[in-house]
Amino acid sequence: MNNVLVTGGAGFIGSHLTENLLIGGKKVIVIDNFNNYYDPIIKERNIQEVIKTQNKLKLDDDYLKIYKGDIRDDLLIDRVFNDNKIDVVVHLAAMAGVRPSIKAPKEYYNVNIDGTLNLLEACKKRKIQKFVFASSSSVYGNNHKIPFAETDNVDNPISPYAASKKTGELLCYVYYHLHDISVACLRFFTVYGPRQRPDLAIHKFTRLILNNKEIPFYGNGYSERDYTFIDDIIDGTTKAIKWLNKEEKRYEIFNLGESRTVSLNQMLETLERVLGKKALINKLPMQRGDVNKTFADITKSKQILGYDPKINFEEGISKFVQWYKSNM
Q1: Quick one: 278 exposed, middle or buried, by C-beta within 10 A (0-12, 13-18, 19+)?
Q2: CA distance 219 to 172
Q3: Which residues contact residue 51 at a Cβ distance below 8 angstroms, ignoring those fewer than 6 apart?
Q4: What contacts 211, CB < 8 A, 6 or more positions away?
Q5: Does pTM surpass 0.85?
Q6: Is residue 167 classed as helix, strand or coil in its secondary structure?
Q7: Pairing, β 228-229 against β 191-192
Q8: Rg (CA), the chain
Q9: Residue 160 CA from chain centroid, whole number
């Protein structure tokens, strides 16, 4: 599978994945709409980093094609699929974030569900039979069983974002069942690292602490997240692509996390230690839609994919802060 379509390829995860694929000798087609959910200049910078990697590797223009547009745009999708040989689709593009989805549920459903359906239809029409779908740990809601396993019931999402991701998984299953498309659904657990979106807590807290501004601190600090460093997520994603290269038709869901939890208090303490600076805290109530804890059981991903996360939280935060100070 040497030709990979990456939707959302200018984003945080997508730009890292695109670079990794280029390094591995793959040809990559990127679709991204560069929307204003956060400053589009950030995605432009991400793409410039990808192009730098392409140039360092001395790869021809054929190795990287970038389409600026929306996955809901039928004409664009037809053009991309008609103009390129595509062996596998890695679908990362989405409206992201739990809290914003509560304010704009229709937009989240429109992009995350209709956009996913558009891509699956394009694969069906052209008999492209390998599809990686970026899901989320949010689908587990406030799961009472710890750690979260792929076999757990996920019928109780607590945000429109989570519900849209669960729906995406179901759509993928339908196309696997009806149209022989092999699918790997990857449930990402709180991804962080260089190029992280500016609205996410680690990036936001770092920016505010360094600028002597108050950080919004929701709840009592005991909520926990399974923070997963970007390099480990990319490793898991590329292993899922390789896993799809088997002959038999397959559909599986995989957790990609570190399988360790860090409380909000611990996260802040780690940031303060690495930055060498104390935070100014504005304590606020827990937000609707936020889950109390995420914790990945990665047994299945280890056994089937060979997934083996390497970067511990302290090391990951140090890498992020180093990147932030060099680039912001």
Answers
A1: exposed
A2: 35
A3: 64
A4: none
A5: yes
A6: helix
A7: parallel
A8: 19
A9: 17
Give Cβ neighbours of residue 106 (< 8 Å, ≥ 6 apart): none
Domain residue spans of the chain:
3-193+229-258+295-311
Q: Using DSSP, state whether 173 is helix, strand or coil.
A: helix
Distance CA 16, CA 6 (A): 11
Nearest CA among 65, 92, 43, 18 for reference residue 195: 43
Catalytic residue among 140, 161, 176, 192: 161
Question: In tens digits, what is the pLDDT along the chain, a chain of 328 residues?
Answer: 699 999 999 999 999 999 999 999 999 999 999 988 888 999 999 999 999 999 999 999 999 999 999 999 999 999 999 999 999 999 999 999 999 999 999 999 999 999 999 999 999 999 999 999 999 999 999 998 999 999 999 999 999 999 999 999 999 999 999 999 999 999 999 999 999 999 999 999 999 999 999 999 988 889 999 999 999 999 999 999 999 988 789 999 999 999 999 999 999 999 999 999 999 999 888 887 788 899 999 999 999 999 999 999 999 999 999 999 998 7
161: annotated active-site residue:
yes
State the architecture of 3-193+229-258+295-311 in CATH terms: 3-Layer(aba) Sandwich (3.40)
Residue holding tokens 């519900």? 163
| Nearest in space to 160 (alpha carbons), one of 105, 113, 117 | 105
Residues written for the chain: 328
CA–CA separation, 264 and 214 (whole Å)? 15
DSSP state of 272: H
With contact defined as beta carbons under 8 Å apart, do 306 and 236 qualify?
no
Give every strand in the sheet of 27-32, ordered side by side: 64-68, 27-32, 3-7, 88-91, 130-136, 182-188, 251-256
Distance (Å, whole) CA 39 – CA 36? 6
What does each C-alpha distance from 129 to 212, 236, 247 come to in angstroms? 51, 20, 10
